[in-house]
Amino acid sequence: MQNTDVTIVGGGSAGLTLALLLARQQLRVVLVEKGPAPADAAPDLSQEYQRVSALNMASRNLFQQLGIWPQLLAGAAAYTDMQVWEADSFAKIGFSAVEQQLEALGYICDNEHIRQLLYRQLQQYSNVQCYFDVAISQLKQGEREVMLQLDNSELILSQLLVGADGVNSFVRQHMQLPLTHWDYQHTAIVAKIRCTEPHQLTARQVFLNSGPLALLPLPEPDLCSIVWSAETAEAGRLMALDDTAFNQALCAASQAVLGPVALVSERQTFGLTMRYASSWQRGRVVLVADAAHSIHPLAGQGMNLGLMDVAALAQLISEQREAGDDIAAPKMLRRYERWRKAEAQSMIVAMEAFKRGFTAKPALLKLLRGAGLVAADKLPWLKQQLMAHALGLKGDLPDIVKKPLNVTGPLADA
Fold first, then answer.
1. Which residue intervals define the domain FAD-binding in the entry (predicted)?
2. 163, 202, 293, 389 - which has most CB atoms within 10 Å?
3. Does 256 fall in a domain?
């Protein structure tokens, strides 16, 4: 039997980040993950950048504080421009890092590379124990502790248990935390492509009648990662195409903005569902990241939202310790829940409004959204507000991501 301060269920980026934040506080931490540990070797090139995330400035600052940013940046694509437009109207808007005196608008990073670097850093701490390739056979909690039994017979007692185990969270289901969800009726197709024209470090997103298509720049100037979110029936049709036909459909959908394109990886699909746990905590158990919420990928904010969850929770745990209080005190956990629920709700509402606004087909609505985007593109103050939220420079941010911001351009007062 092992006694510890915090048990984290889930070894994705959110769980590993939280483990590292708590390890730095000298807490005893156990991390449990049903899948394998991140590979120490470089990933298979055919799989590299198959699943990517767009990290904003707040997430960059968090990883800077955790000491992994230089290595992560070396394998990332820092995009300096962003172009968003509608395929069959005049609606468009553009953003530039140069305009805002920033080094970049965001960073496209390989998801597995993030996990590798976090795990490598975590292994430097003797107060952290990681269990990979194990399942949970029992989870029970009492007034003062949570008991976790693994299928390898290991028994773990902890003051706090954190569910960071993704959209199909075992912890959330076992604790019977209610979940609100709706099907976006979209399926995301992800793949890596080679372009004829260089991407010029520009992230592009085009809104089609069936859903948005994102072209995300990778470190090589002619490689992009695509996230093509289409109505499920249309996604099925696209997946049934052979590679040549799919390449042609992709080129047409992107209006050949990068010239003819060719797949350089397998296509993968993911159903898109909004999930939102109406309760994030019960007793000494609390949820973070995708276990608590998942959103449409059209703005690329899912990873950033989850990382801010764990940074906020780590901050409140630190404050509890400094005050000599219980790190799983109900008052503190409710404070965390209120804080991060407000941020998640705002993002869910914004993504739903954005999605519905761009999928509405009446001519008058198309005209209004076209005029709205063009107006936003021409109004500096409004544009700065939009960019500040996208970059993670607005909102109720955890302290750790504020320290290195040092924004000196127009966004400083946005």
1. 4-348
2. 163
3. no
